[in-house]
Structure formats: structure tokens, C-alpha cells
Design brief:
Layout lengths: L3 H10 L27 H15 L5 E7 L6 H15 L3 E5 L8 H13 L9 H14 L5 H14 L3 H10 L8 H9 L5 H11 L6 H7 L6 H20 L4 E5 L15 H13 L5 E7 L1 H8 L5 H8 L2 E4 L5 H19 L12 H8 L5 H10 L11 H21 L2 H13 L5 E2 L2 E7 L13 E7 L2 E9 L5 H11 L2 H4 L3 E6 L8 H10 L6 E4 L2 H15 L1 H4 L3 H11 L6 H7 L16
């Protein structure tokens, strides 16, 4: 046997299948699991055919719905589509699986659209820069590559600070259907070699309110939260139409069943997304909609909509079902995983399925298994001498930490994700005594609709024999009016039944503002509130374990297993951020708070 000792050593020390066998939303954007093109080829072929029909203007818009049970490879399929488009550049790609507020679905889709276009496209730069370059080249009859235009933009900006304004005016001369010139300006600002200018431009395109100094520097108008939601659909349509002038765009809605909530009208996430896709279908110039869901979701939720026929006629012009594996599929799947593994380790096996026996794999295929079941079987039957299995929660947690290493900038600005991670972490501590506070319960804050979304949750406990009710407001990734509104509510102890208010934030609050007045009142001896500084290294483990909890069905772990992992590792109970929120308030502004423009 070739290099037998090395091969045995590799097999005994590494198990390529002993890893979380789940494609999470973040995996769509990176090279993750080995792709086996023959699996569900009928589905990917149909999607690529739809993109080609739209690209060649045979059809303006096509809607495709993928129906499959959990574990049949829906997200694997989307990942295949994304990576092929990154290679051939035939379309831009937008992915939506995270919706924080179903009552503001248009604003949520705008955020997902902006964040998707921030990802690297086929030319080695963000899809935003690809779009900006296409718009500029058409307007000025140039042939710049995105990298060349970034350099050119930087050179011109040095001598002409109003270059964006001038280019925008010229572009609007041919883009008659753009109602908001700031959209063009913001897209051009994504060409900036200054990372903060690029980031703030994308934040504006995502519907976020910018610090006023930044908005003025970029020449972009800030709107109120109410106005931004009202304008979101129009902004989405204008961006999609701009893209459509150059390339098709494929918009994917995935994993919406995992969002276990309804909007105020009682619609589920899948229903809300389907209605949005129907509305967009009627308004955009060209594109492909790809929606994935369980068959039961399709039958019980989408078919139950009052406008079901109108919705399904658009989002399911083509309806595709994914199938269970056959024996030949199992052989191809396992051999591809092993091929990638052995190549990475630099060893040569005696055959493509080693150390497994083909007969046993074919026997497994007769059960018509899901991909995940096959990979789990391989994990359990790997190695010449069995290795102790890893804690599945620990594996999932490690995977989420790796993701956060390269994406903490986005998550650190995501107020909803930050607050959910903190609320979940505290919920695991009920019955514990930390910083002299015995935690009895973690509850939502009862508030009128106009007051919702500011104070994220309430910690109810006992401190030295007295009831303590700490209202926690995570006000990171927000500024201006929202920050002011959040701090105003945080000091209204009587209205929200609080004994203490706690602000969690990394950035400074501007002096001379109404928000600063509210902050001073919160920290006064009269109210005894607290400002806890949000630090990346402290929130990162809480974000990671919350992501595992949120995807526990995909990771196939239970709440009991997660709690056992937390008890063993103490990553929550010993977390400094947790202790700071519960400790006696200092009444001081943190010295290490960073500038709002940072």
C-alpha cells in the first residue's frame, strides 16, 4: 500500500466527517463542504437554465420553488449556485435567511440585499463595486476593471472632493428611472479605498441611519426610521433595476422555517417572504427568484394564503423537488469527500472509498437516506481504531466561532442579533447567583407598539433581599434618532417597571445631543443606571453559542446538550459582559468607548 504509515496515521488522527454537517447561512458565501455536482443536478440545471433565459432576455422574471424535507440538500444546492456564479459572473447573487422583524419585511430585505452585494463577486471585489464599475463604464464609455476604477476614484477624489456629486449628475442623465439620486451616490462611494467610507455607504444602502457627520461628509440624506421603512421597497426596486441593466440577479429565500414567529397580522416568515417575492416579481425589470421550503410549509402556509394563486403563479413557475439518495449517489458523495480529504493531507488511499467498504455503503443507499445521514454514518464508522466522538455542541460552537472571526464586524453592528445573544445567555443563568444578584427570570418588556424594540429584555432577580428589575437595551449599530429614542425609554423606569436601566454599547454618545442628556440622567445617582461597554471578545462567545441554539435543529443538538456544554465550559456564567451587566452600577461613562464614526 502506498505511503502506508502516513495513511494510517492520517486516518487514526483525523476524521473528515466528524464536523457539523449543516450548511448555515454564512456557509453559502464561503467554500465549505465538497460539492458533488451530480447530486440534485436536475435542480441546479433548472436554476442555471432560468438564469440563462433571463440573461438572454427570453423571459424577464422567473420564479422557482425548491420543495424538500430537512437534510435533502436545499442549502447545499444554493451554495453550489452561489459559487458557480462567482466563477462565471453570469448573475449577481442575493441571499435572505435572516429576518429580525417580520413587521418590517421590506427594510429587512433591503438589509439582506445590501449585505449580499457586499460579498465578493466574480471579479475579486464586492458585488457593489462590480455594479458601480458597470454604471460608470456605461456612462463614460470606459472599460475600467473594478480595481482600476477604485484607484481612479481615489486619485480624482484627492483633487476634486465633489467627484461623487459630479459623477452622479452625469449618470442621472441616462438613468431616468432613478427616483433617489442618493442611491447612485452611495453606490459610487463603495469605490472608496477608505474602508470607513465604503462601509458607511453600504450601511446607508442597507437602510441604516448614519452618524450625521458621516451622512454630511458623504452627501447622503438621513431619514427617520418610519420613513426608511416606507422608502425601503422603492429603494430595493431601484437597486434591482440598476443591476438588471447589466446582469440578471438571483434572489434566494432560504431557511425561513427556522424563524419561529409571526408578524402582527399573524403571517409566518415563509408567508411574509412569499408575499414580498410576489410583489417584487411584479415590479422589477428582470431576475430569478429562488425560494426553498419544506413540502408541509408549502401546503399548510403558502397554499393557505388568501392570494395563494397569485403568489404561487409567480414564485413557483417552476416547482422542483429534491430526492433522497440512491446507492450510486452514496458512492459518489463519499468518494468526493474522501478525495478532497486525502488530497489535503497529501496521502494516497488504496481505493476511492477507503477505509469504507463499497458493499456497506451500497447497503446504506438502499434505505434512500438523506445526505446528512450518510455523512453521519461515515463519521461514526471512520478510522481503523475508533476515536472518541466529539461533543456535537462543541463542534457546532467551534464552527460558529470560526465564522465570527471573519464576520464580527457585521454581527457587532447587528443590534437584534446582539440582544438575542445576550437574552439567551441570561436565560441559561436563571437560578444562578452572580454579582450578588439571584436571577429569577428573564422576560420581555411589556410596551406599546410605539415603544417596542428599544429595551430588549428585563432581568428579574433578588439583590440583598430586594427585588431588582434590570432593563437591558443594546444600542449598538444605531445612532441619531433611534439612539435618542432608546435612551429616553431606558430612563422611564415607572412606565416599563424597572428598578435599573442598563445601556450596552461600544460607541460614544455625542456630546450636546438629546441622547447625551438622557444618558446623563440614566447614569445619575437618582436613577442609578449603568453603561456597560460592549467588547468584541466578550460578546463573541455569546454570539456563537446563541447561533448554535438558534440552529439547534440543523445541528441536531438539544437544549439539554447545550446546557450541559455551558455548564462544563462556563463560557456564559464566567463571561465578563454578563458580570458587568449584573454588578453594582458605577454611574460612569466607559473610558474606552470608541468614536461613533469608527
Amino acid at each position: 500500500m502506498p505511503n502506508e504509515n502516513e495513511l494510517i496515521n492520517v486516518i487514526q488522527n483525523y476524521n473528515p466527517f466528524d464536523r457539523p454537517l449543516v450548511v448555515r447561512s454564512q456557509d453559502i458565501w464561503v467554500t465549505g463542504f465538497p460539492d458533488v455536482p451530480s447530486l440534485n443536478a436536475h435542480a441546479s440545471d433548472a436554476i442555471f437554465d432560468a438564469i440563462e433565459r433571463v440573461r438572454t432576455k427570453q423571459q424577464p422574471v422567473i420564479g422557482i420553488t425548491i420543495k424538500a424535507e430537512r437534510g435533502l440538500g436545499k442549502s447545499h444546492l444554493i451554495s453550489r449556485i452561489r459559487h458557480q456564479l462567482q466563477v462565471d459572473g453570469s448573475a449577481l447573487f442575493v441571499y435572505t435567511s435572516e429576518i429580525n422583524d417580520l413587521n418590517r419585511i421590506k427594510g429587512e430585505f433591503l438589509r439582506n440585499l445590501a449585505n449580499s452585494l457586499k460579498q465578493i463577486g466574480s471579479q475579486g471585489v464586492s458585488q457593489w463595486r462590480e455594479l458601480a464599475t458597470a454604471i460608470f463604464n456605461e456612462t463614460y464609455n470606459k472599460t475600467y476593471t473594478p480595481e482600476e476604477l477604485v484607484r481612479h476614484f481615489s486619485e480624482v477624489l484627492k483633487v476634486n472632493p465633489k467627484v461623487v456629486e459630479h459623477w452622479t449628475d452625469r449618470i442621472l442623465g441616462i438613468k431616468y428611472d432613478i427616483e433617489n439620486p442618493d442611491i447612485i451616490a452611495a453606490i459610487l462611494w463603495t469605490l472608496s479605498s477608505n474602508p470607513s467610507e465604503e462601509r458607511f455607504a453600504i450601511n446607508w444602502l442597507a437602510g441604516q441611519e448614519l452618524p450625521q457627520s458621516r451622512a454630511e461628509a458623504l452627501g447622503l440624506a438621513n431619514s427617520s426610521a418610519q420613513d426608511r421603512e416606507a422608502q425601503a421597497f422603492s429603494t430595493v426596486r431601484q437597486i434591482l433595476d440598476l443591476i438588471s441593466d447589466y446582469k440578471p440577479i438571483i434572489m434566494c429565500f432560504d431557511e425561513l422555517e427556522s424563524i419561529l414567529m409571526c408578524n402582527d397580522a399573524g403571517f409566518t416568515a415563509s408567508q411574509v417572504a412569499a408575499i414580498l417575492a410576489k410583489d417584487l416579481y411584479d415590479k422589477i425589470k428582470r431576475g430569478v427568484f429562488l425560494t426553498t421550503m419544506f413540502p408541509q410549509t408549502w401546503n399548510d402556509q403558502i397554499r393557505a394564503l388568501r392570494e395563494a394563486e397569485s403568489v404561487t403563479d409567480r414564485i413557483a413557475q417552476k416547482s422542483i423537488e429534491l430526492t433522497y439518495l440512491k446507492s450510486d449517489d452514496v458512492i459518489v458523495l463519499v468518494s468526493q469527500w474522501l478525495k478532497d480529504f486525502y488530497e489535503q493531507r497529501g496521502v494516497t488511499p488504496p481505493n476511492s472509498l477507503y477505509p469504507f467498504e463499497e458493499e456497506k455503503l451500497r447497503e446504506l443507499g438502499k434505505e434512500r437516506p438523506m445526505v446528512r445521514k450518510v455523512l453521519q454514518w461515515c463519521a461514526e464508522n471512520w478510522s481503523l481504531t475508533p476515536l472518541p466522538p466529539k461533543d456535537p455542541v462543541e463542534s457546532a460552537y467551534s464552527k460558529e466561532l470560526v465564522y465570527l472571526e471573519s464576520n464580527i464586524q457585521d454581527d457587532f453592528q447587528n443590534k437584534n442579533k446582539l440582544s438575542k445573544a445576550l437574552q439567551f445567555s441570561f436565560s441559561t443563568l436563571v437560578g444562578q447567583n452572580i454579582e450578588k444578584v439571584y436571577i429569577k427570570d428573564i422576560t420581555e418588556v411589556k410596551a406599546r407598539s410605539v415603544d417596542q424594540g428599544y429595551i430588549d429584555f428585563k432581568i428579574i432577580g433578588d439583590e440583598n433581599g430586594s427585588v431588582v428589575k434590570i432593563g437591558v437595551a443594546v444600542l449598538e449599530g444605531v445612532s441619531g434618532r433611534f439612539l435618542q429614542a432608546g435612551l429616553k425609554r431606558l430612563i422611564e423606569y415607572q412606565d416599563f417597571d424597572l428598578t435599573r436601566g442598563c445601556l450596552v454599547r461600544a460607541k460614544k454618545v455625542g456630546s450636546g445631543t438629546k441622547a447625551k442628556q438622557y444618558l446623563d440622567e440614566l447614569l445619575s445617582s437618582k436613577l442609578g443606571g449603568e453603561w456597560v461597554l460592549l467588547k468584541r471578545e466578550e460578546i463573541k462567545p455569546l454570539l456563537a453559542i446563541y447561533s448554535v441554539f438558534d440552529a439547534r435543529n440543523d445541528y441536531q443538538v438539544t437544549e439539554e446538550q447545550i446546557n450541559h456544554f455551558l455548564s462544563r465550559t462556563r463560557i456564559v456564567i464566567d463571561n465578563n459582559l454578563i458580570h458587568e451587566i449584573l454588578s453594582d452600577p458605577s454611574g460612569e461613562v466607559p473610558k474606552d468607548a470608541i468614536d461613533e464614526d469608527s
